[in-house]
Amino acid sequence: MHFFSSRGFCQYVINRDWLSFSVRARELIDDVKFHVPPFVRLEECKGTNRYKCRAIFWDKYGYKIFTLLWAPFAKNMIDPQLVFVEIGNRYLYGRLDAAILLLRSVFEWDFCNVSRYDVCLDFEMLAKYAKVAAGLYRHRYYVQRYDNGAQFIKNNVANQMSWGMPQSMVKWKLYNKTLELHVGGHAAEKPYIVQEWIDGGLDIFNVWRLEISLSSLSTVTFDKTKLDLNRVMSDEYMVSMFSSLYEDRFIIKKESKRSRRSNNPTVPFLEMPTHDSVAVAISRKENDRREVAGLAELNAILRTLDESKFIGANVGLVKKYVGLARAICTPELIRHYNFTHEVTLFDRLEQYLYDAESRRLAF
Question: How confident is the model over 7-59, as pLDDT tens digits?
Fold first, then answer.
């Protein structure tokens, strides 16, 4: 999501960067047969040290949609019906709805809990921000609640600082994202992130990231509330959560000789989005959703377009599903991905609605 200043230039880009959660299969997981649509490739892999089975779902462009892990070794400690889900990074950038829709169509499950949720803010490292970052690096400034942050230094330059212990539920990281993605090299990693910067007008050779990671061995909570899929899929909730934690937990102070560090002067850094700017950003994203939706979201809709279920059924039911398909993708988008059978069915359902309306008007 792009946030613009009152002067019209992009201040920063906020996105999810990690999402993993657990679900419980409604059937015995050993008997589950995954429904794999033609535009998705299923790769069955060797398990991990905690799970015997692992499967990765890829889209036709080679991007990972999600990974599934199941059949835990410690069955007496972990529910054997539990399936661990990790969303592919590409699908966290504007396509999370698509990944969840596909996941719901692959097998039947009930949500359990979120185990990790990362949100990041990308910004251009302007001089005023660089001054604060340099102060943190030289320990002239510090982040309240944390000891001096750990630093990663390369070629005598601080490119990364982090705050929070590995076992902490809330951890922060400030780092040079341009450097990490090798922007300016032969081929930048994760070009979809760089494209977001370009769309926002950021200088892609000078982008840094402030990232917050919420993780737990049981379940992630925020503001005493357990995170669920509705919350982590909400852009408004994402920005609100990041802003709240930033203002409450990422308070930068200036070192001084005062007896109580909490009385040290506060150093301004990033200005969080206002309620109005969040509304504008969400509105812009909703307008662009159809064009950037991709292909995974088609599966859940097209699976419902079974001709035998609709032809001869009541018109209201047909309208419901055709309207849902229209909301997610245009027929042209479906044709672009060569769904010949589905396009024919979609057109026939449209014709069915037209004929029904003609009969109604005739009387």
Answer: 555 578 899 999 999 999 988 776 667 888 777 889 988 888 888 889 999 98
Tokens standing for residue 306: 């079974």
Q: Find the helix packing angle between 340-362 and 315-328, rounded to 10°.
A: 130
Strands 10-25 and 157-163: unpaired
pLDDT in tens, 226-240: 999 999 999 889 988
